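Quick illustration, no need to memorize.
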Amino acid sequence: MTHQWYVIQVMSGWEQKVKDTLEKRIQKEGFSDLISQVLIPAENVSEIKSGKKKISRRKFFPGYILVQMDVTDRSWYFITETNGIIGFAGEKPVPLLDHEVESILNQIEGKKEKVKPKVSFEKGDNIKVTDGPFVNFNGTVDEINPDRGKLKVMVLIFGRPTPVELEYWQVEKV
């Protein structure tokens, strides 16, 4: 039997703890033949906290993890008896379809290197510059370049609107 991907519901905020616990138990109790991989689909996001740029992880599916496994009575019991796990998504374990797994894995791989800003901007948003030579200036978003993580902002300098290119993390919404 081949290993398939299943969605496991876990207690919210416990995703990493459950993943670590499962991986330790798999090694300790010899379940690597039945359970091959535990995954928390997530991406890196940047935000400004206390004036400093901070990179954190944002989960695609909070409260859920993915497990690649063979479902047997033994593995089902192993999973459901792990602390922090609520159970399989649905009444009984149903594997994800191949295209669903491929889509999720591609999404994770595509966002592995890129850091996405936590806050999204729209044209016309009022912002305040929090870093760089224009710190404490106010402006209006004129253009957005999400691929580069940059904004073109119209800032009043000497009473004239001046376009300034800034990174997402250098500004905050007013």
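The longest strand covers residues 42-49.
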